[in-house]
Design a protein that fits this description.
3 helices, five-stranded mixed sheet, alpha+beta, 20 strands, 329 residues, four-stranded antiparallel sheet
């Protein structure tokens, strides 16, 4: 015979279930709390490790910067105490000591010269003549040396008279006459000397605005200028022929043009459009032809051509870029 269930039995059973549920919730909450605490501690540990690593790297960078600053100050102090003319003499003496090695490597004789000038450029022309620059101090003379490293002639001093210079920059030799054309930047002119470095004439002062780079093709002289925003064309006697381009960023316009090179096959003109970050190409009739390098170059300054390769030096990204295509087409 079944025992009748009373209301008290129901109440007791319900309370037991409530207690069991409460215990389950408390147990689960405790597990979650432990898991969260463990995760929090792990994250704090990871953050502390990251912070300590960053702190160590930052201290290392500070030490490196401090060392660089010390090195820079040492260089500046040494430079201030260095007599540039004595420095020039030391380099000349070094070349004299290495005379045989130079002649053997370059396979030259007395007809080949080594020249020292006060621009910041170095070049080897098609005759094998080498120009190495010692300083941007325009008070130093241009000194020419033969293959035997013997002084031949000293050219120019600082000033604005004939044969004097203010920040000379570009130089080129006309291959037939061997006359030397020098872009006399701060005097806003090009000065011309014969092969013996005797002053002949000058031109451009009425149109030039800080001339920088200079190139010769056949009977034409091409001059870029830092502030003029254009390319100036003259004949070999300094007679003005044409202005190519205007200031701006459109096709055929320039912003601080610098390096220039001529394709000897078809006469195309390649110009480093410095602040527009590109190379512009003009045909031999001075009309705009094309451009390249806009997405790659940053402040291109110098350019040289071979039959199928263009070499471009970019200043802000200190890289020598090569562009491969046939320049004779």
């Amino acid at each position: 015979m079944a025992t009748a269930t009373t209301s008290q039995d129901v109440r007791d059973s319900f309370e037991d279930e409530v207690v069991e549920i409460r215990n389950m919730i408390e147990s689960r909450f405790s597990e979650i709390s432990v898991a969260l605490t463990t995760r929090k501690n792990k994250l704090l540990q990871e953050l502390e490790e990251i912070f300590n690593k960053y702190k160590q790297e930052n201290n290392k960078r500070k030490e490196e910067i401090s060392e660089l600053e010390k090195g820079l100050k040492l260089i500046q102090d040494n430079f201030k105490s260095t007599n540039l003319k004595e420095f020039q003499s030391e380099i000349v003496f070094s070349f004299q000591q290495k005379q045989k090695a130079i002649e053997s490597e370059l396979k030259v004789n007395n007809s080949v010269s080594i020249e020292f000038d006060n621009t910041l450029l170095g070049m080897i022309d098609e005759f094998g003549k080498i120009r190495v620059d010692l300083s941007n101090d325009s008070s130093l003379p241009v000194v020419q040396y033969t293959g035997k490293v013997r002084p031949v002639v000293s050219v120019g001093t600082q000033g604005n008279g004939r044969g004097e210079f203010q920040n000379p920059y570009g130089v080129v030799v006309e291959y037939k006459s061997e006359n030397i054309y020098v872009a006399d930047q701060s005097n806003n002119r090009v000065q011309v000397f014969d092969r013996e470095a005797k002053y002949l004439f000058e031109f451009g002062s009425d149109k030039m605005n800080y001339p920088l780079c200079i190139a010769i093709y056949k009977d034409r002289v091409f001059v870029t200028q830092h502030l003029g925003g254009c390319l100036l064309v003259y004949d070999l006697n300094g007679q003005f022929i044409k202005q190519v381009g205007t200031p701006g960023s459109k096709e055929g316009q320039f912003a601080n043009p610098r390096g220039i090179a001529i394709n000897n096959t078809n006469g195309d003109i390649y110009v480093c459009d410095y602040s527009n970050h590109r190379i512009q190409i003009f045909s031999n009739d001075y009309s705009y032809r094309s451009q390249f390098g806009k997405s790659i170059l940053k402040y291109p300054t110098s350019i040289q051509l071979t039959r199928d390769v263009i070499f471009v030096l970019s200043v802000q990204n200190p890289f020598l870029y090569t562009f491969n295509f046939n320049l004779t087409q």
